[in-house]
Amino acid sequence: MECKQGIVIQGPTEYYKELADYYQQFDYVVWSTWEGEPQENIDYIESKNIEVIQSELPSFNGYMNVNFQVLSTFEGVKYLAEAYNIGEILKVRSDTIVTNLDKLLPRLKGKELSFMALAKEGVRKDCYYELEYVHTSHDYPADNVIYGTASNLGTMFNFQVDEMLSIPPEALITWNYLVSQDINFNLKYDYLIDNGISFFLQECLDENVKVNWLKRKVNLVDWYKDKTVYEW
């Protein structure tokens, strides 16, 4: 049986028209957001045949709203897996449009867990945090777009924090996935590759894909390529 692919749009509905107009062309798309989002936004999204899940906001948001991010992603992944037996899922933030997705999705099929890129150690000197070792820069995977099996994404996003840990969500979700798999935590590129995590920036370049981050008005493919923050 062929493994079906789905898309989870995760987050608030500020860019509802842009995203709904684009992602409506794909099958098995769900927008996972929060109770209290404007009803006109929800109605517009649903008019484009995109299903909407509205969850109750966690009582504690966590650093950089990490609890909001992980819960909405988890609920979206769970919904697609249970309602449509979707085996592999592309998770995108609700301020991000991935162009040429009809060409990229076939290239992603079969990837167990894949980020677009990995920032190199030393990119920024003002970011310090601790998990199982001390980080001194943005040495973590980019999380605007993540692809993987429903099982792996469910594992990655199945947690909540109960204290204000100043750890970027991108690092925390990767930490949670690795420790849940009994894999020692390390964000080095070769180590992640050896433990089943891949990166698809090259596929984006091959297929002329843009990952347009609307909030920052930047194409993340160009940003990661031009800033040489990806370890080839």
Features:
single chain, 12 strands, alpha/beta, about 230 residues
Descriptive account of the structure:
By secondary structure, the protein is α/β, with parallel strands linked by helices. Helices cover 35% and strands 19% of the residues. It has 9 helices and 12 strands. Helix 3 packs antiparallel against helix 5 and helix 5 packs across helix 6.
Write the layout of secondary structure elements.
Layout: E1 5-10, H1 16-23, E2 29-34, H2 39-47, E3 51-55, H3 66-84, E4 88-93, E5 96-98, H4 101-108, E6 113-115, E7 129-130, E8 134-135, E9 145-149, H5 150-156, H6 169-180, H7 189-194, E10 198-199, H8 201-206, E11 211-213, E12 218-219, H9 220-226
Parallel strand pairs: 1-2, 1-4, 2-3, 6-10
Antiparallel strand pairs: 4-9, 5-11, 6-9, 7-8, 11-12
Helix pairs in contact: 1-2, 3-5, 5-6
Low-pLDDT regions:
228-232
Overall geometric form: globular
Mean pLDDT: 90
**Termini Cα gap:** 34 Å
| Approximate helicity band | 25-40%
Order of helices and strands: EHEHEHEEHEEEEHHHEHEEH
What amount of the residues lies in strands? 15-25%
Q: What structural class results from the helix and strand content?
A: alpha/beta
Strand order, main sheet: write it out.
Answer: 3-2-1-4-9-6-10
Number of helices: 9
Give a summary of the structure in a few sentences.
The chain has a 7-stranded mixed sheet with strand order 3-2-1-4-9-6-10, with helices on both faces. The chain has helices spanning about 15-25, 40-45, 65-85, 100-110, 150-155, 170-180, 190-195, 200-205, 220-225; strands at about 5-10, 30-35, 50-55, 90-95, 95-100, 115, 130, 135, 145-150, 200, 210-215, 220. Helix content is about 35%, strand content about 20%.
